[in-house]
Design goal:
- The protein is α+β, with helices and mostly antiparallel strands.
- It has a domain at about 50-150: Roll (Nuclear Transport Factor 2, Chain: A).
- The chain has six helices and four strands, in the order αααααβαβββ.
- It has helices at about 5-30, 35-45, 60-70, 90, 100-105, 115-120; strands at about 110, 125-130, 135-140, 145-150.
- It has a four-stranded antiparallel β-sheet, with no helix packed on it.
- A hairpin with a 5-residue loop joins strand 3 (about 135-140) and strand 4 (about 145-150).
- The chain is elongated, with a radius of gyration of 25 Å.
């Protein structure tokens, strides 16, 4: 065989090995399934954050929170009454993916049990809490604000 033929055979073999290795690694890391899985989660209202696998409140969750609020507006628990609202400067600090400042950590109140039952379980290290009239999905270990539901109180 000529050197050109040997070169072509060698290059073809190297290319085949490189492609099969790339495909194997891609399958191992779940490529090709990731988008489909995310779309499935979004359709079912699970609200997973696409970058970090963190949860957020889905539209269904927000409807449940609004429904609970309207059913209980005449006898709201501490943390949710109009008098419990935060001043505008503190309220601006409740930002998704922000860290809860130490001053607001003192204002954390447990989420009412009957509302908690309407919501899906929070992700690991997180819990639903009430802060100044808002329902917050908070990572209690890092104080990262995963999501916030702002009530429109008149």
């Amino acid at each position: 065989m000529s050197p050109k033929t040997w070169f072509r055979i060698g290059a073809s073999a190297i290319l085949s090995v490189a492609l099969s290795t790339t495909l194997a690694v891609a399958q191992e890391h779940g490529h090709g399934h990731e988008k489909h899985d995310r779309d499935d989660d979004d359709k079912h209202g699970r609200g997973h954050d696409k970058d970090h696998g963190r949860r957020s409140y889905s539209d269904h969750d927000r409807d449940e929170i609004r429904g609970w609020y309207h059913e209980n507006r005449d006898h709201l628990p501490p943390g949710l009454a109009k008098r419990d609202r935060l001043p505008p400067g503190l309220e601006r600090q409740l930002v998704v993916r922000g860290t809860l400042p130490p001053g607001l950590r003192k204002k954390i109140v447990r989420c009412p049990d009957d509302l908690e039952r309407r919501l899906p379980p929070p992700p690991p290290d997180c819990e639903h809490v009430v802060i100044g009239g808002h329902i917050v999905l908070l990572n209690r270990r890092t104080f990262l604000i995963v999501d916030v539901f702002h009530f429109e109180i008149n």
